Amino acid sequence: MYILAVNLFGSLADIMSRAYGPALAISGMIGTLMALFVIQDKPYKVLGLFVTRKFKRAEHNHKYAILIPARNEETVIGNLINSIKKQDYPQDLITIFVVADNCTDNTAQIAREKGAICYEHHNPDERTKGFALKYLFEQIQRDYGITSFEGYFIFDSDNLLKKDYISRMNDSFDAGEKIITSYRATKNFSENWIASTYALHWLRSIRTRHRARSFLHLATNIQGTGFLFASEIVKDGWKYTSLTEDRALTADCVVEGYEISYNDEAIFYDEQPVSLKVALRQRLRWSKGHLQAFAESGWGLFKNIFIDTHTQRYDDDKWYNYTWRTIRHRFMSFDTFAQLLPKNIINIFRWIIVYLILYPFFCSQFGLDNIRILYNSTWLAHVITHIFGDITVSLPAGAETYVLTILIEIWVRIYYRIGLYFFKTLEAVYLFIIENKRMPKISIWKKILYCFTWPTFDIIGRYTQYVALFKKVEWKPIPHNSKVTIEDIEEGA
């Protein structure tokens, strides 16, 4: 029996070791392609440090509807509506709509008492935010007509708006922008380390995504709440009902050729989760929605890179004007496709297949010869290698080498991730410095703590994406309990 097992292992090792070379080559080509899809990221980060698009003050005030999907939000819905009522924008040009979505509390009553028009949606089979918005747009179309408003804002119930928020967003809209996102601040930044990771994530998005793309008149991405779009975008109703309707809306708008701009002066405040259980549940939903959005919109974006059927050509168009517009549109499609592409999933499968499955068989056939186990691209690896020198492993061919190679590969990956973890803390340091004036007052000791806990945000995102690939995920509301008002924030500024 032992001899049979050895012979079977030998035959399998021979087959797998032969496959290792071609698989490694294919993996290298995929890796090069993955690098191509992030080639624009570093220039964006540099630009985001220095520039953002500025908008001159609007010449005209436009008529807007504000949409608030809410499920059991009686604690916070009133504070949001109050902050809208205190805007310095003409109130006769603002209509507040609330959809009380499968509520079992007093959300609808409070919304009406505060002056909002409230529709109640009761359908337990339609439980995503997207379905709530779909229902709300159906009611608006029936009672008012979608085009009776020039633009639509979308907010979550826990949001609060700075006094000039709508005025600043109107500057962008009046400049001709059709879809605009805004500066997302956090009202409970220092409540605990979990809330701080979200707060830093939104600030990172501003610096590394929104500012540069908006400055270059490209398309940034919508992130859930705090954005404005023209009524023409939803003239046929709202159709984005997946777990992450914001990603689907972003992809669809880019395919249709819309820029997605960003206004750095329009500030709103958001409440972040403080429970690890709630955070994990939310991040799993985001991850599943990311995969769904890629499945739904990825092909359209990819096709648009090569075949642009949406850029309009005018009768008096100069060839170079049209060429520039179509190049920009194609690049926006490439850029958005790159953001939607589940690179973590692709890379983990590359590693499992090539380095965890095939490479150990290859080593069992030919042995290991002076393999360095403390070398990779992180600064931690360079420091340790500088102190201790190269640590290498050599092993003869055989079944034991197969097992040891698997252990070594797992160690090397963990070691790389540890180095990357500490490097990521510098990102938080950068954000605390560059965004200091807009942050609430936080003690130096908390800032130090938050710098070291910040990398967990990306770690959670990576592993929830792995889980989301196999797990069915349902939309569940995120509890909001903060009683902070816009007055509290303004007094503390």
Topology:
Layout: H1 2-36, H2 41-50, E1 64-70, H3 77-85, E2 94-101, H4 107-113, E3 117-121, H5 129-143, E4 151-154, E5 160-161, H6 165-174, E6 179-186, H7 193-215, E7 227-230, H8 245-255, E8 261-270, H9 276-306, H10 319-340, H11 343-366, E9 368-372, H12 379-388, E10 392-395, H13 399-434, H14 444-453, H15 456-468, H16 486-492
Helix pairs in contact: 1-11, 2-7, 7-13, 7-14, 8-9, 8-10, 9-10, 9-15, 11-13, 13-14
Could you describe the 3D structure shown?
This protein has 493 residues and is an alpha/beta fold. The chain has 16 helices and 10 strands. It has helices spanning 2-36, 41-50, 77-85, 107-113, 129-143, 165-174, 193-215, 245-255, 276-306, 319-340, 343-366, 379-388, 399-434, 444-453, 456-468, 486-492, and strands at residues 64-70, 94-101, 117-121, 151-154, 160-161, 179-186, 227-230, 261-270, 368-372, 392-395. The strands form 2 sheets. The protein has an 8-stranded mixed beta sheet, sandwiched between helices. The chain has a two-stranded antiparallel sheet with strand order 9-10. The longest helix has 36 residues, at 399-434. It is globular. The mean pLDDT is 89.
Q: What are the main properties of this structure?
A:
two-stranded antiparallel sheet, globular, alpha/beta, eight-stranded mixed sheet, 493 residues, 16 helices, 12% strand
Instruction: Note the overall shape.
Output: globular
Strand order of the largest sheet: 3-2-1-4-7-6-8-5
Taken as a percent bin, the fraction of beta residues is: 5-15%
Mean pLDDT score: 89
Summing up helix and strand content along with how strands pair, one would put the structural category as: alpha/beta
Oligomer: single chain
The radius of gyration over CA amounts to 26 Å
Order of helices and strands: HHEHEHEHEEHEHEHEHHHEHEHHHH
Instruction: Give the helix level as a range of percent.
Output: 55-70%
Let me know the largest β-sheet.
8 strands, mixed
| Strand count | 10
